[in-house]
Amino acid sequence: MVMTQVVDLGGLLVSAFVVNLALSLLTLAILRWLMGWFDLWRFVWDPPLAQFGILICLLGLYTLIL
Quick one: 20 exposed, middle or buried, by C-beta within 10 A (0-12, 13-18, 19+)? Predict the structure, then answer.
């Protein structure tokens, strides 16, 4: 498996970490909407802390996968 450090977006070189972060934020936004839709935030004691933890886990997951 080849890990790329830089992604070429139409001639613009972007760090792979920035791409992973953007993907993590997009996934977190979708998860926030779904948890709000199903009212699952009532089971969480501190939602901002939980969202930060989910963001860090997603970032690590996307970094390992991609």
Answer: buried
